[in-house]
From TrEMBL:
It is found in: Membrane. Its cofactor is heme. Residues 1-25 form the signal peptide. The keyword Iron applies. This is Cytochrome P450. InterPro entries: Cyt_P450, Cyt_P450_CS, Cyt_P450_E_grp-IV, Cyt_P450_sf, Cytochrome_P450_monoxygenase. Belongs to the cytochrome P450 family. Keywords: Heme, Iron, Membrane, Metal-binding, Monooxygenase, Oxidoreductase, Signal, Transmembrane, Transmembrane helix. Pathway: Secondary metabolite biosynthesis; terpenoid biosynthesis. PROSITE patterns: CYTOCHROME_P450.
């Protein structure tokens, strides 16, 4: 079929959609003026020079809830209000599912894994994978985290002088990828040994042209949002973009690697990914005590209870999902934390003193435990503050599956001047969960919400402590999400960051290079990535002066 037929089909789809949207109008809520009915604010938001420039200003201007415009006159509810977020994500449970276009996009970039699943299917996936992320299981993995942290430090000592500028954003993804591979799938990526793979190449190039989407790309995404999945899938088969090709390349590479991993660990898993043969139950029985990701997937694949079983594609998709979501965002968060500690040397010194004190107390040759890390209060405050100020993901999107009333912690003023303490929403309403804006909300974190201040977590009398509500899973921040769809691997990420930061700060000191850094926060591969202003074409960068510590044996 001729792709030009998309034009009349688009017109018809949007005519119908516009009629439906009149029922879901949020015109009683204030919002920024719109210069384009066709694109709304979507093009402006996707192409702002710095992540959050527009949203942060709009939330300051209109309050913790406002109305933004989507393509073709759609009203979108923008939310950073603590009580509203708690209602939508925690109280609401699965009543605010991911939007159809978001689900479709996730399936396209990582398959039918945990982040794709909805409702009962999500519960089934989460139940199958949760044992791999239990606190007891992760404590068993700590020596592995420490081993790879030490390996990173060794590589730096081998390759760099006692004081040298190192792009830490190049190295931290190497260690987090190696940790993820061996701890979750018993697979050695060899990234710290400079081994290459088709999977890494596909992952690094999949968002090559998605950083600044064109007007046509945004309109195409909105067009897909308006149509049933079956229609979209039909047209995707005849109208394939370069972005579609790159996404498919990653998913194919990830599932191929997943298939090899599973075959390597179970001789009864046939090459084409068919069901595990009955004999493999002997293997599973022998591995019953093992609760790493690989064994959980094998066990779920062989489960007799359909409520606990994952099909072949779901199993393979879990691997592609965890690889996509499980190493780069953690590495990016670590990059931001070390950057902030390089800007605030006094905080770096305070943290290093805390680490040294614990090491002295435990003995120079003692291996630190999870309990040791948990007693390092300033370490954990720095991790929380890094997650708060620099969340890996800026926002997520939900859709009301029923008419609802959303309560507000901070009332807003309507277009008629009325004080609104609740927002009525209708079934089908798209809701923009503003993670980064909530994390910087002065109503939650106080007047210094835009500033790095890890001590806010240590002072019980601080303004942020008074205003905090029960949201999120760690430190009241939204960076890991909240409620039934909160990130399943948040404990994994926290313990990994603890191990890496303690190792690096024990052996090295970090400073800004002469002349400082002009860092710009740019959306890259679904992350809020640091880049050098004026050098965005060079990709993610964080060049810092790294010095070996004189007392590295403390």
């Amino acid at each position: 079929m001729n792709p030009t037929l998309l034009i009349p089909l688009s017109a018809i789809a949007y005519l119908l959609l516009s009629l439906l949207r009149r029922r879901k109008s949020l015109r009683f809520i204030q919002g920024p003026p719109v210069s384009s009915w066709l694109l709304g604010h979507e093009y402006e938001l996707a192409n702002q020079s710095e992540v959050g420039d527009l949203e942060f200003k709009w939330f300051r201007d209109y309050g913790t809830v406002f109305r933004s415009a989507g393509c073709c006159g759609e009203d979108i509810l923008m939310v950073s209000d603590a009580e509203a977020l708690h209602h939508i994500l925690n109280t609401g449970g699965y009543r605010y599912p991911k939007t159809r276009d978001a689900v479709r996009f996730i399936k396209q970039i990582s398959g039918r894994g945990l982040t794709w699943a909805q409702g009962a299917v999500h519960q089934r996936h989460k139940k199958a994978l949760s044992p791999a992320f239990s606190e007891s299981q992760l404590r068993m993995l700590l020596p592995l985290f420490q081993m790879y942290s030490d390996k990173l430090a060794l590589r730096w000592r081998e390759r760099f002088a006692d004081s040298q500028i190192i792009d830490i954003s190049h190295w931290l993804p190497k260690v987090t990828l190696d940790v993820l591979g061996e701890s979750s799938f018993d697979f050695q990526f060899g990234s710290l040994d400079d081994k290459s793979s088709d999977l890494r190449v596909a992952l690094q190039t999949m968002f090559a042209s998605s950083q600044r989407p064109s007007k046509f790309t945004l309109f195409l995404r909105a067009w897909k949002r308006a149509l049933p999945d079956s229609v979209v899938e039909y047209f995707e088969g005849i109208y394939v973009t370069e972005e579609d090709i790159r996404f498919k390349a990653y998913v194919d590479a990830a599932k191929g690697a997943a298939r090899e991993l599973l075959e390597e660990n179970s001789s009864n898993l046939v090459a084409n990914g068919e069901k595990i043969a009955q004999e493999s139950h002997d293997y599973l029985k022998g591995a019953e005590g093992k609760k790493d990701m690989l064994n959980m997937l094998l066990r779920s694949k062989a489960a007799e209870d359909p409520k606990k079983r994952l099909d072949d594609d779901e199993v393979l998709s879990q691997v592609s999902t965890m690889i996509f979501a499980g190493f780069e965002i953690t590495a990016c968060t670590l990059t931001w934390i070390i950057y902030e500690l390089s800007r605030k040397i006094e905080d770096q010194q305070k943290l290093r003193a805390e680490i040294d004190a614990v090491r002295v107390k435990r003995g120079e040759d003692a291996v630190l435990t999870s309990n040791d890390y948990d007693t390092m209060h300033f370490l954990n405050a720095c991790i929380k503050e890094g997650l708060r100020l620099h969340p890996g993901v800026q926002f997520t999107t939900r859709e009301a599956d029923l008419d609802d009333i959303v309560p507000l912690a901070q009332p807003v003023i309507s277009t008629s001047g009325e004080v609104l303490k609740k927002i009525p929403v209708m079934k089908g309403q798209r809701v923009h969960i503003a993670i980064a804006a909530y994390n910087r909300s002065s109503s939650v974190w106080g007047p210094d919400a835009d500033q790095w201040n890890p001590s806010r977590y240590l002072d019980p009398s601080s303004e942020s402590k008074k205003q905090q509500s029960m949201i999120g899973v760690f430190g009241n921040v939204m960076s890991f999400g909240s409620g039934v769809r909160a990130c399943i691997g948040w404990r994994f990420a926290v313990i990994e960051m603890q191990a890496i930061l303690v190792c690096l700060l024990t052996q090295f000191e970090f400073e800004l290079p002469p002349g400082g850094l002009d860092i710009q926060t740019v959306p890259l591969r679904s992350m809020n990535a640091p880049m050098l202003r004026g050098k965005l074409d060079q990709g993610l960068q964080m060049p810092l002066v790294v010095k070996r510590r004189v007392r590295a044996d403390v």
